[in-house]
Structure formats: structure tokens, C-alpha cells
Specification:
There is one protein chain. It is globular, with a radius of gyration of 19 Å. Helix 1 packs antiparallel against helix 10, helix 2 packs across helix 9 and helix 4 crosses helix 9. With 311 residues, it is mostly helical. Strands 1-2 form a two-stranded antiparallel sheet. A hairpin with a 3-residue loop joins strand 1 and strand 2. The longest helix has 40 residues. The protein has one domain.
């Protein structure tokens, strides 16, 4: 139960960042938004590096981030590259769909994570846990079906393509991260993952002119608002990453990743709240047919969660 409560903090913080991302794309980054947010996310990761160093010194009495082997360093750099691809794919999907629709595709993460965890980490789950996982994924995936007034039901194919890529990157990077963290420690893994992300951001800034142009233009035209929102966004996301990283060591990786099933529920709840009370900050489809669909999905997810925790 402890691992579940710890891991659940991550999806809640991620849900907040999803709405901030959507707000930034819709209000400030209507042109070149993906590249601009990519650069902000990558470059602001530098803020976490000194925090990680201090954290390791406090916990372990020394900093060992520069004394790990080349193999583990390379593996963690790969997680940074996977994370960069994850962010790009997620932002491309978010340009086309509501946050609550986009995020539901992350339900693929625990499935992919289970497969990878089985082959790479030797982790196994009970039959009841597998059944519960299937119920939760089924329940939350219902939200991904678009109810169109003319065409009936349809799946957002481009959104599905981008988010399947993002989910695969998330699961694979999580497995690699845990494998190295078990051999080294969480602080080392966090440091090199984010260091590589900063390097990717610098590479994009130097070698992709359109990203650089839109990034500098956004800073020039809305510097105060953009910086405050992006710093807040990244602090929330980094905090979620740190908490989830420790949760990885408390339970099988597929179960920790399964808590991401609650992210669409958090995104939906926040979206409804913003639509009713602060429509300028966010909007959600709250008509009866859409809400019934989402409530059914949440109910099924709740049943799966009860089975998971009692297994």
C-alpha cells in the first residue's frame, strides 16, 4: 500500500503539468509550440542537477555521479534520449487533442513495462494482478474513443501514433533507469538522465534553427509569463519524476507504471474544474454524453484498482 500512495503522487503532479502544457500551446506557443516547449523542458532540466548532487551527499555522504562505469553512464544517457523523444511525441499529440484524451494512451505504459520488466529485470506478477491490470487499462482506454456527432465513434489515429511512441519510450526508459538504479542508486540515475536531456536541449538550440527562432521569440514577447509558467511546470514534473523514481525501487516496475492509469482521471477532474470556474485557463467537454463515457471509464478503473490492491 505504501508504494501505491507514493507512486500516486507522480500522476497527480503530471496531470497538473498536462494542463499547463496545453495552456502554453494554446495561448503562447501557437506557432512552433512543440519545439519551444521541448527546449524549455530540456534546458530547465539543468535546475535538477545541483539538487540531485546535494541530495546524494545528504543521503550517502558523498557524490558518486562521476565514478560510475561507462556502461551505466551510456545506459542512463539513452534514458535521456528516450525521454526527449517521449516529450516530443507527447507534445505533438497534445497539439491535436484534449489533455484528457491524449493522456489516456499512457495506459499502454504498464503493459509495455510488464513485458520489458519480465525479460530485462525478471519481474513477475500474479494472475490476479494481471487481471486487475487489464481491467484498469480497459476502463481508462474508453476515454480515448472520440464521440463524434456525425461519424459516431472513432479513434484519433495520429494521437494514437504519437502517444504509442511516447508510452514505449516511457516504459523502456523506466526499465533501464531501474536496472541502473538497483546497481548504483537513484541519485546517480536521476543526474545522468537529466544531464543528457540538457545536452539534447543544447543540441536542438544550436542545430535546429526553427526551434531556436520560436524559443527566442517566445522569451522576447512573453518572457515573464512564459518563464514563470515553465519553471512551475518543470518543478512539478521534476518532483513527480523524483518521487516515481523512488517508487520504482519499492515495487515491480509494471505496478508502479500502472499508477499512471490514474493520470487521465486527475487530468479530467482538473479539466472539469477549470472549465467551470476558470475557462480561460482550460476547457473540457462536459456535455452529458462525454461525461457519462468518462464516468463509466473511471468506475471500471476503480474496480480494477480495488482488485489490484487486494491481490
Amino acid at each position: 500500500m505504501t508504494w501505491f500512495l507514493v507512486a500516486l503522487i507522480g500522476p497527480l503532479l503530471y496531470a497538473m503539468t498536462n494542463h499547463i502544457d496545453k495552456h502554453l500551446l494554446g495561448k503562447y506557443f501557437k506557432e512552433g509550440g512543440v519545439g519551444t516547449l521541448m527546449l524549455f523542458s530540456a534546458l530547465l532540466s539543468v535546475l535538477l542537477l545541483p539538487v540531485v548532487l546535494v541530495g546524494e551527499i545528504i543521503v550517502h555522504g558523498h557524490a558518486s555521479v562521476f565514478s560510475i562505469g561507462w556502461g551505466n553512464t551510456l545506459a542512463l544517457c539513452v534514458t535521456g534520449l528516450l525521454y526527449a523523444l517521449l516529450v516530443w511525441s507527447y507534445l505533438k499529440a497534445l497539439e491535436e487533442a484534449e489533455a484528457s484524451v491524449t493522456i489516456v494512451f499512457y495506459q499502454l505504459v504498464p503493459v509495455i513495462g510488464y513485458i520489458l520488466g519480465y525479460f530485462i529485470l525478471g519481474e513477475t506478477l500474479s494472475q490476479m494482478q494481471l487481471i486487475a491490470m487489464g481491467i484498469i487499462i480497459f476502463g481508462t482506454s474508453i476515454i480515448a474513443i472520440e464521440m463524434d456527432s456525425t461519424d459516431g465513434f472513432k479513434l484519433r489515429r495520429r494521437t494514437a501514433m504519437y502517444m504509442t511512441t511516447a508510452a514505449t519510450c516511457w516504459a523502456l526508459s523506466s526499465v533501464i533507469f531501474k536496472a541502473v538504479a538497483l546497481e548504483e542508486n537513484v541519485w546517480v540515475s536521476l543526474f545522468w538522465e537529466n544531464a543528457m536531456l540538457v545536452i539534447v536541449g543544447i543540441f536542438f538550440f544550436i542545430f535546429i534553427p526553427t526551434y531556436r527562432k520560436h524559443f527566442l521569440s517566445a522569451l522576447k514577447n512573453n518572457s515573464a509569463a512564459i518563464l514563470s509558467l515553465n519553471v512551475t511546470n518543470e518543478v512539478l514534473y521534476m518532483t513527480g519524476n523524483v518521487i516515481v523514481s523512488f517508487a520504482f525501487l519499492m515495487a515491480p516496475i509494471s505496478l508502479v507504471l500502472l499508477t499512471e492509469s490514474f493520470q487521465p482521471i486527475f487530468v479530467l477532474a482538473i479539466g472539469v474544474f477549470l472549465t467551470i470556474f476558470f475557462p480561460d485557463l482550460g476547457s473540457e467537454k462536459i456535455e452529458a454524453k462525454h461525461m457519462i463515457q468518462k464516468i463509466i471509464a473511471i468506475t471500471i478503473t476503480g474496480i480494477g484498482t480495488y482488485l489490484l490492491l487486494s491481490a
